[in-house]
TrEMBL record:
Mg(2+) binds at residue 17. Its cofactor is Mg(2+). PROSITE patterns: SHIKIMATE_KINASE. Keywords: Amino-acid biosynthesis, Aromatic amino acid biosynthesis, ATP-binding, Cytoplasm, Kinase, Magnesium, Metal-binding, Nucleotide-binding, Transferase. GO terms for biological process: amino acid biosynthetic process; aromatic amino acid family biosynthetic process; chorismate biosynthetic process. This is Shikimate kinase. Substrate binds at residues 35, 59, 83, 144. Catalyzes the specific phosphorylation of the 3-hydroxyl group of shikimic acid using ATP as a cosubstrate.
Amino acid sequence: MTTDRIYLTGYRGTGKTTVGKLISAELATECVDLDHVIEQAAGKTIREIFAAGGEDLFRDWESRCLAQVAADRSQGRVISLGGGAILREQNRDVIRQTGVCIWLTASPDVIARRLADDQTTGQRRPALTELSPVEEIRELLARREPLYRQSADLILASDAKSPQQLARDAVHWLDQHGGQSSM
Ligand SMILES: Nc1ncnc2c1ncn2[C@@H]1O[C@H](COP(=O)(O)OP(=O)(O)OP(=O)(O)O)[C@@H](O)[C@H]1O
Ligand SMILES: O=C(O)C1=C[C@@H](O)[C@@H](O)[C@H](O)C1
Ligand SMILES: [Mg+2]
């Protein structure tokens, strides 16, 4: 296991972007947000990429950008992934081979509340199913959970902790970096 790169995974709204920035500040390194890299590379917002070619097109951009970011250490040591980046096996392989992965969890109700309150949801989080927002979260979380779990070296429950506390927990674990653990 190498801590060369620190990946953050988890469902939409679990705080990957927010906590990733705080971890990188604590470690005095840069934070790369994969969703942002994709938008820059495509010259489109995530919603526009979905509108142009659906989720498949977005996933192709995501795999390409992840491979680039993973291969180029100068872009930053902390990498906040998108919520679905662990869906493709090739992406999970890249993550495992190049760094450690921290899985941020939250309950469906907390996720739904955070997404509804976040002004950027409209641009960055197009619907992934025809289900209602909370049903979509429940359904996709259940489907993705085994993939998040198999990718994770550390699991952090975010429901009742501030982003600052989660970043401190992550840095504390990184100082000691052992096998898979939960806090
Ligand atoms: N631990 C937390 N406690 C309270 N609010 C939080 C916490 N973590 C994140 N938030 C809030 O939830 C919203 C979503 O956070 P953020 O964008 O970091 O999630 P994300 O996991 O990166 O989502 P996405 O996968 O869509 O990129 C933001 O408004 C953020 O301030
Ligand atoms: O959970 C997902 O599938 C996604 C999460 C976001 O971070 C973006 O990567 C995009 O909206 C897809
Ligand atoms: Mg994010």
